[in-house]
Amino acid sequence: MAAKKSRLGFVIAGLLLGILVSSMDNTIVATAMGTIVSELGGLDKFVWVTSAYMVTEIAGMPIFGKLSDMYGRKRFFLFGLIVFLIGSTLCGTAQSIVQLSIYRAIQGIGSGALIPIAFTIMFDVVPADQRGKIGGLFGAVFGLSSIFGPLLGAYLTDYISWHWIFYVNVPLGLIALALVACFYRETIRHAKQKIDWLGVMTLVPAIVCLMFALELGGHQFSWDSDVIIGLLAAFAILFLVFLAVESRAEEPIVSYQMFRKRLFAISNLVAFFSGASFIAATVYLPIFVQGVMGGTAAHSGMVLLPMMLSSVVSSQLGAVLSSKLGYRRVMVAFSLIFLSGILLLGTLSSGTSRAVVTLYMVVTGLGVGASFSVLGMAAIHHFDATQRGSANSTLSFLRTLGMTLGITVFGVIQRNLFGGRLEDALAGSGQSPVNAEMLSDPHILLSPATCASIPTPVLEQVTAALSDSIAHTFLWALIPAGLAFVFALLMGSERLEAAGRTRAAGDPSAGPLTAKDI
Predict the structure, then answer these.
(1) Contact predicate 158/48, CB 8 Å
(2) Could you tell me the pTM of the whole model?
(3) Cβ count within 10 A of residue 31
(4) 221: β partners
(5) Sequence-distant (≥ 6) Cβ neighbours of residue 395 within 8 angstroms
(6) Residues 345-376: pLDDT tens digits?
(7) In this structure, what are the phi and psi dihedrals at residue 90, rounded to the nearest 5 degrees?
């Protein structure tokens, strides 16, 4: 029995490492981007270093979730991990921003299998009376990695090389690969299902068209240009076709049947909107600290530490409370805290003290942390082992889609706000158009050497414009945060079961597995 418990512990450790490296790479490039762009060039393409990863990750999630229900979790978790490690190694060798974006896309394909399948395996092997504690641990690692990514990326960039923000995945990933390959013995029989390839071929291009339109609109092309209108039209047509295909598909990648369960539907909506809002804090807080407050990349990462720790605390607390208070009460309380945190971030200015910024981060972290654990448990509450992969991958899909659209939409908002305020600030400064154009991107303020070359009066104006644009971007992020709170109010009265059901003989879907089944 002790050996079986030990084996379960090794499996959980391997899954946690897989979640760590996968979710960390959503944000690890944030604080290193200034250095990467200065070395590789391609300032106009830097956004795709992050977006390429997230688009391919989104595309893979529903496919791998469905495949794991059909043929087993283990083989696709290991496949995803191997592809992810290959992509990480390639990213470290990139010689241009285009190469890096392509290699990040390979990483994203692997990541599309890791997070949803890791959570699903956890629900397969952990008894219901332990899911609160273990689910909180999984959620804590997911939340921790989302904020630990910029911290680790900052230190590796400052003290070693930006290449190591990708190479660091290799040893961690190899350990996870060894643990899951050696100690996870899958026993669940999986249902044979068809993959909805037509759905995949309509949804993924639709997302890509939308992201290109949002990123290029108002920047490289005007919003009323033929290119942007064509991209938006292509998105609308493809998305409508996708909805029609899903209504007729025998086994749709996004099942309408699942969404008839109110708890599942609402959990996905809360994840979508909270992810969209939280990514704004994750991306723009390091830029604020480094560009406005004058810190180094490492310092911007350190300031995120309180946010990281508070999200870990609320992830554990939310999971434990779910069995006592129910999913709705827990999510309503923490969504309100998260909404308050985003509102506080919207009051930031160039004169805000470091202590106040830290306090606002703690509030934001406390608010968002519970969603990482509670929503995952709520999403699979009504489904057995033959549907958990699809249910979990749908939640991960929509959360990541929200984060992806959040990066793009808030990137457009912040860039336009910054450009407008910068133009007003430089109107009477005597700066030439060339200098004004040089200062039109916030990432240029992340380099102390560049800041030192800018005249102090002009630098003060640019810094004030950057601070104002980021604060107003956070105010725009109140919209998805508020929607997450509203939808949390609509969650049902279900709560996490305190004890597992008895499994019928020969029916692995009747209840959770225990350490004996591994």
Answers:
(1) no
(2) 0.79
(3) 33
(4) 217
(5) 116, 267, 268, 271, 375, 376, 379
(6) 999 988 888 889 889 999 998 999 888 888 88
(7) -65, -40
